[in-house]
């Protein structure tokens, strides 16, 4: 995650219920686009501290409530220590969360066994009752794409996005099983220890939506090689998933649509956040990767790919 807010030892100390606790270390995490995130060590215990630069306090409260809810449901992930203001505190008038630090690594590329583990963990998440305080669609889904405020930064891409958004307007979700989804299953939201998945992190985009959207996003986020969908990785993902939750025929039939939806919405978010809002950054052309993936997938390769996938009960 990126660092935008400079924080002090005193500010961290004041977040805890006992402000005299010893702050041993503050280390910013690199990367990210919206938040300032740090590893902090308090009384020799590591935590992750996130200062939300753009979200409202109520939105961050919802994230904290979801983390606590997932803990109570037995979903592996971070826990929230007690701080003096409840689940969410403030630093420099910005909402702030402190979470337990999960030891492990984020992997750039997953192997079939790891994709199998991702599928299994997703199915466990999808089998968990969804709390009613979550939104009913992704923050950066079709509504975001329809309301996109074009600035002619890249006319070719903006034309493509308009056309793609129109193509995706026939939303086949009315009869599909809905529930709690993560909505951003990319490799950088997965933590592994010794090659084994120990946690899915960053539930900031979680919502109640067709469950198949999460699987589609996982295909886009974890199962590409050279920006093309890998049959081996995709089959491993589904193999792990269906061992815990059966897929309905309607979900299987809707999967090609949701793969295009997931990749297109990711392209739109990247263009909005990394190009329009941060022109000149090293990530400013990342949206092109998703556009090219959708174009390749829509050229008939979707039928070729899904004919080779072992999706079933």
Explain how this protein is built:
The chain is an alpha+beta fold. The chain has two domains: 9-100, 2-Layer Sandwich (Phosphorylase Kinase, domain 1), CATH 3.30.200.20; 112-307, Aminoglycoside phosphotransferase (APH), C-terminal lobe (Aminoglycoside 3'-phosphotransferase, Chain: A, domain 2), CATH 3.90.1200. Helices cover 42% and strands 17% of the residues. It is built from nine helices and eleven strands. The strands form four sheets. It has a five-stranded antiparallel β-sheet with strand order 1-2-3-5-4, with helices on both faces. The chain has a two-stranded antiparallel sheet with strand order 6-9. It has a two-stranded antiparallel sheet with strand order 7-8. The protein is globular and about 60 Å long. The two termini are 38 Å apart.
DSSP, total strands: 11
Largest sheet: 5 strands, antiparallel
CATH C-level of the largest domain: Alpha Beta
Q: Find the structural class using helix and strand composition.
A: alpha+beta
What's the N-to-C terminus distance? 38 Å
- Give the oligomeric state: single chain
Uncertain stretches: none
How much helicity do the residues have? 40-55%
What is the CATH topology classification name of the largest domain? Aminoglycoside 3'-phosphotransferase, Chain: A, domain 2
Tally the helices: what do you get?
A: 9
